[in-house]
Write a structure and sequence with these properties.
Layout: H1 2-22, H2 29-52, H3 67-78, H4 92-107, H5 110-118, H6 122-157, H7 167-189, H8 192-210, H9 216-219, H10 239-243, H11 247-264, H12 274-281, H13 285-296, H14 300-317, H15 326-332, H16 338-349, H17 353-360
Helix pairs in contact: 1-2, 1-8, 2-3, 3-6, 6-7, 7-8, 14-15, 14-16
């Protein structure tokens, strides 16, 4: 049964990996996702293949030193950081392992290498494997950190982030860390721990195959799907950027924002961006972001959604809207998703939208 699951995991990984790597020209980040999946696939196939063909020992082990870097490169690509040649130093452990395996195979057969590593060199081999697992875990944690930075940047630039947050990628990193943790008792104790590790690998690849297929940023070409979000390039300096955040500049930005809220009501646009608002206000996105953070004490995301919360509160007070659902009112106020609406409303008011509506529907007076 265990061998069957390992073979199934390996074949599923191969089925997913090669189409992804074939999309390298249209979406470079997918090459690294393909390499990550290929690594999991080969590592899953290693034991069942070696059990039948021990002379192949070493041919499936090179991903041990690269699987963490591959996942990290994919996260960098999807979050707009890119992977320049300067990042190639992350592949040094992989290059060293490949050279060591090639040298070993040039002097010994696969069976002799296996006997040596499981015999007098067993302790050293175990420590080497553990070191690679720790290295991969460090890359997974670094990937989660990059995703956290990315989401912070999103909230500085966008008012709606649902299709851009890459939450599924965080779950992929977390599942990868769980697999690395499971490897330790699996290697030491075997038995049920080995089964859990194999099942974990299968579920991870199934997650990519089943859930990832629903992520347009993964499997579709850039012309068909939204690109990974990167910080926009810094625009040409204007009068505010040249002079810095002076008191007169701060007042003028505040006045123009009040006009935008009262007259234009641009926050009703569900996908209003920082660059859009900066153009209306007449300043740079950097200076507008600085004003919102320093003077208003909030990100662009929180600022716009606080205006939308105030708008939906007015709509809920209107008895003419009694027959409309909360989601209808949320969309009318500029929200583009139920989750952002609920989270923003509760963050600002302290209670759920339905509770607030029950308490204040049909009333008048200050909104709070």
């Amino acid at each position: 049964m265990l061998l069957g699951i390992e073979y199934s995991t390996g074949l599923l990984g191969l089925f997913l990996a090669f189409p992804l790597m074939a999309m390298t020209r249209t979406r470079p980040a997918n090459f690294w996702l393909g390499m990550f999946i290929l690594s999991v696939s080969l590592l899953s196939l290693a034991f069942p293949v070696y059990a039948r063909l021990p002379q192949l020992f070493g041919l499936f082990d090179w991903p041990l030193a690269g699987v963490g870097a591959f996942s990290y490169f994919y996260v960098r690509g999807m979050t707009g950081l890119g992977n320049s040649r300067r990042q190639l130093f992350h592949l040094i452990p992989l290059a060293l392992l490949v050279c060591a395996l090639a040298y070993g195979r040039s002097r010994l057969s696969g069976i002799d290498m296996l006997r040596l590593l499981l015999g007098e060199w067993q302790f050293l081999f175990s420590m080497l494997l553990l070191g690679f697992q720790v290295l991969a875990a460090m890359y997974a944690i670094a990937a989660l950190y990059r995703l956290r930075q990315y989401r912070h940047r999103l909230r500085e630039q966008y008012s709606s982030v649902e299709r851009r947050e890459l939450n599924w990628l965080s779950w992929l990193c977390i599942s990868f860390i769980a697999l690395l943790i499971l490897w330790i008792p699996s290697n030491l104790l075997g038995g049920v721990w080995g089964l859990l590790l194999v099942l974990g690998r299968l579920l991870t690849l199934y997650f990519v195959g089943w859930f990832g297929l629903r992520q347009t940023a993964v499997f579709l070409a850039p012309a068909e799907a939204p690109r990974p979000v990167a910080l926009p390039p810094e625009p040409a300096a204007d009068k505010y950027a040249r002079s810095g955040m002076t008191e007169p500049a701060s007042r003028l930005i505040g006045q123009r924002l009040e006009h935008w809220v009262a007259q234009d009501r641009g926050y009703l646009d569900p996908d209003i961006k920082l660059t859009d608002l900066a153009g209306v206000v007449g300043t740079s996105p950097q200076l507008l972001s600085q004003y919102l953070n320093d003077v208003r004490g909030m990100s662009f995301f929180d600022y716009v959604n606080s205006l939308r919360v105030a708008e939906i509160q007015k709509l809920m007070r209107d008895r003419g809207n009694d027959g409309r659902t909360l989601l209808d009112l949320a969309f009318a106020a500029g929200f583009s998703s139920k989750s952002t609406f609920n989270a923003s409303f509760k963050k600002i008011t302290g209670i759920a939208p339905s509770s607030w509506r029950n308490q204040h529907a049909g009333t008048s007076g200050p909104i709070g």
